[in-house]
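Fig. S4 source data, part A: sequence.
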Amino acid sequence: MKIVIAGGHGKIALRLTRQLAGRGDSVVGIVRNPRHVGDVERAGGEAVVLDLEHATVDEVAATLAGADVAVFSAGSGNAATAARRDRMDRAAVVLVMDAAEQAGVRRFLHVSSINVGCADDRGIGEGYAVYLRAKRAAEEHIFERDKLDWTVLRPGVLTDGDGDGTVKLTAGDRIGPKRARFDQVAREDVAAVLVALIDRPDTAGRIYVVVGGKTPIEKAIDV
């Protein structure tokens, strides 16, 4: 398959690229910074330099041409302003979905957050709340897309551990939890879950929450 990853230099995206390329898939990572091209290539992918904050639908659609799957794994970063969070964590998602529809790519996977429904929780700081509001708004756009076979993955707090191929995967709803959760999950395992979701078209139209656990990923997908 050919998989295009928006946010190709992200920590999940590079792991996903390595896993997909390692089994023979063709991977294209969209990156903003030309200095990140080498990292994507070393992971086994091809890099396309494109700033999703300023790109047009036509430009993104050209990158998606011929792809089987689009994965949105971009993010605004911890120090982002509210305006940039909206551009990257919401508007860029809409841009990539519009481009996928234009390019005829139906399968769309979105990496969201376990706490997407908790922006109004009093225990959450304002910066995190702004991020979650943007993520929630992006999901609302996703749920409206009947021309895309979308799947939303909501990971817990991300860690850089090696991962062990086991997780706890549960079905999420469109609203999300009202109280924040801080269960951890390794980025390596999140990437492996994305690989499993790519291989399972029957997971389209579903929302999954993933945290660390004891169930092998291939079995966990059957939740």
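Fig. S4 source data, part B ends here. The mean pLDDT is 94.
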